[in-house]
Specification:
This is FAS1 domain-containing protein. InterPro entries: Adhesion/Biosynth-related (IPR050904), FAS1_dom_sf (IPR036378), FAS1_domain (IPR000782). One of its GO terms (cellular component) is extracellular space. The protein has 9 helices and 9 strands. The protein is α+β, with helices and mostly antiparallel strands. The protein has a single domain, classed as FAS1 domain. Strands 1-8-9-2-3 form a 5-stranded mixed sheet. Strands 4-5-6-7 form a 4-stranded antiparallel sheet, with no helix packed on it. The longest helix is centred in the C-terminal third of the chain and has 16 residues.
C-alpha cells in the first residue's frame, strides 16, 4: 500500500500547476527569514521532536520517500504533536487508529501545496490548491490576540489552523515548512474520493 500512496503522491505532484512566477527555486527570500535551514522535509521532521507524529505519519504512508528529494518544491503546513493530540481527542481516536486508517494519506495531502510560499507572499482570501485533488486551503486573517501569522481554513468548515509565528518559513531543501497548531481535515467527500481512487489503482 505504501508504494501505491507514494505513486499517487508523485502523480499528483507532477500534475500540479507549475506556478513558475511565484515559485522560489533557490528559496532566497525564505532563507532571509528562517533561522534554521534543512536539506529536506524529512531532515526537518527528524530534527524537531515537536513534529514526531508528523514524521511518523510521513513514514507510514510512504510520503517520506516522495519528499526526500531536496528538489521537491512544495509548501507544507506541518501540524505539531499537540495539534495531532487535540485532533485525536476531538475525534475520540487513538494515534494507532489514525495511523492505521485509510484516511491518513488524504489528510496529509491536504497539508501540502505544490507551490513554495513564504508568509509574506500570502494574502487574505487567497486559495491554495493542495495535493488532495480538488481541495483548496484558504488564507484568512489571524484570530485577534492570537499572535498567529495567518489563519488557514480547510474546506471542512470545522477545521482551521493558525500558522505559528515562531516556526514559519523554515527552509527544507527547495520546500518551505509552515508550522500550524491544528490538523487541517478535508471534507469527507474529498477523503472518500481519494480512498476510492487509491483502491482502484491497487486493484488494477
Amino acid at each position: 500500500m505504501k508504494s501505491v500512496f507514494a505513486l499517487a503522491f508523485a502523480v499528483l505532484l507532477l500534475a500540479a500547476p507549475a506556478f513558475a512566477g511565484r515559485r522560489l527555486v533557490q528559496a532566497e527570500e525564505s532563507a532571509q527569514v528562517a533561522s534554521t535551514q534543512y536539506s529536506s522535509i524529512p531532515e526537518f521532521a527528524a530534527d524537531q521532536p515537536n513534529f514526531s507524529t508528523f514524521e511518523l505519519a510521513l513514514n507510514l504512508t510512504g510520503l517520506i520517500d516522495s519528499v526526500s528529494d531536496s528538489d521537491v518544491a512544495v509548501t507544507v503546513f506541518a501540524p505539531t504533536n499537540a495539534a495531532f493530540n487535540n485532533f485525536l481527542a476531538a475525534q475520540k481516536l487513538s494515534l494507532e487508529d489514525l495511523l492505521d486508517s485509510d484516511y491518513l494519506m488524504p489528510v496529509l495531502l491536504n497539508h501540502i501545496v505544490p507551490e513554495v510560499l513564504t508568509t509574506s507572499q500570502m494574502y487574505i482570501g487567497e486559495e491554495l490548491p493542495t495535493l488532495l485533488t480538488g481541495t483548496n486551503l484558504t488564507i484568512a486573517a489571524a484570530t485577534p490576540n492570537s499572535n498567529a501569522v495567518y489563519k488557514i481554513l480547510s474546506e471542512n468548515p470545522d477545521s482551521t489552523a493558525n500558522i505559528i509565528p515562531s516556526a514559519h518559513n523554515i527552509v527544507a531543501g527547495s520546500s518551505l515548512i509552515q508550522a500550524i497548531d491544528a490538523v487541517l481535515v478535508p471534507t469527507m467527500p474529498a477523503i472518500e474520493a481519494f480512498v476510492q481512487k487509491t483502491n482502484e489503482i491497487t486493484a488494477a
